[in-house]
Design goal:
By secondary structure, the protein is an all-beta fold. The chain contains no helices and 11 strands. The strands form 2 sheets. Strands 2, 4, 5, 6, 9, 10 and 11 form a 7-stranded mixed beta sheet that branches. It has a 4-stranded antiparallel beta sheet with strand order 1-3-8-7, with no helix packed on it.
Length: about 120
């Protein structure tokens, strides 16, 4: 069955960096777009970044563009989120999402359990 396992969350200071990883299994990883989403405390779920199956097309939420970078390694069935210049408002539970098809505009159909990111001094 589909399984997504996030890791790499933790506590970071404002201006610091973290790298999130998502290990995928149970499906043909290279054929599907993947995304990262987050849910800040007391707020709704929001997509942060996405990457198409071929890695050429990406999406970023405007507030993270230029600070976050999504990437994928099909040989390792993994997707990553490099987060730099972290801000307190980036504090959230971060989820890895699998999409239903190749493109980043397709709906997602599975998500992992999440990894907590806290940005605080």
């Amino acid at each position: 069955q589909v399984r997504l396992v996030e890791s790499g969350g933790g506590l970071a200071q404002p201006g610091g960096s973290l790298r999130l990883s998502c290990a995928a299994s149970g499906f043909n990883f290279s054929s599907y777009a993947m995304s990262w989403a987050r849910q800040p405390p007391g707020k709704g779920f929001e997509r942060v970044a996405g990457i198409a199956a071929d890695g050429r097309d990406t999406y970023y939420k405007p507030s993270v563009k230029g600070r976050f970078t999504i990437s994928r390694d099909d040989a390792k069935n993994a997707v990553y989120l490099q987060m730099n210049s972290l801000r307190p408002e980036d504090t959230a539970l971060y989820f890895c999402l699998k999409h239903r098809a190749w493109g980043i505009d397709t709906p997602s159909d599975f998500r992992g359990q999440g990894t907590q990111v806290t940005v605080s001094s």
